[in-house]
């Protein structure tokens, strides 16, 4: 045994050194403690991202009546009774920016379509954007026709 500052050090057969005394007892008590268990009465926390439920598709009749991306966003927010602050927090942007996207004074970037759909709980915005791309995709028809000719 070696003394160091009033504490005893012991050398074990594998060569590790342990503190004897109060520090060793504290370490043994910490090792003996069980991990924290979740009590049954604890409520689950809601996610801040708004993905409590998967976003649902809007009826095709509603999608056909939408006139712009801004209107699609406004209808999605109104249908879910969401506040602009909530949607802004979910997508990590300011309330004023969401308001500008909703009124059409700011464009809706493609990278925000998925987060906005998740925040509002509806895929109306994505469905509208996909419909517009499909309707304006005259070049896609020619490209697909060329691929089909190559495959034949």
Which keywords apply here?
152 residues; mainly alpha; 434 Repressor (Amino-terminal Domain); three-stranded antiparallel β-sheet; 8 helices; 7% strand; extended
Q: Short description, anyone?
A:
The protein has 152 residues and is mostly helical.
By DSSP (H or I, 4+ residues per run), the number of helices equals 8
What's the rounded overall pLDDT mean? 78
Low-confidence stretches: 11-16
The top-level CATH class of one domain is Mainly Alpha
Q: Please write the string of helix (H) and strand (E) elements.
A: EEEHHHHHHHH
In CATH terms, the superfamily of one domain is lambda repressor-like DNA-binding domains
Global structural class? mainly alpha
The end-to-end span amounts to 87 Å
Strand order of the largest sheet: 1-2-3
Supply the CATH architecture of one domain: Orthogonal Bundle
Number of DSSP strand runs: 3
Q: What is Rg?
A: 30 Å
Summarize the structure in words:
The chain has helices at residues 22-32, 60-65, 69-79, 84-91, 95-103, 113-120, 124-136, 138-151, and strands at 2-4, 7-11, 17-19. By secondary structure, it is mainly alpha-helical. Among the domains are: 2-26, no CATH class; 60-137, 434 Repressor (Amino-terminal Domain). A hairpin with a 5-residue loop joins β2 and β3. The radius of gyration is 30 Å and the shape is extended. Mean pLDDT is 78; it is low at 11-16.
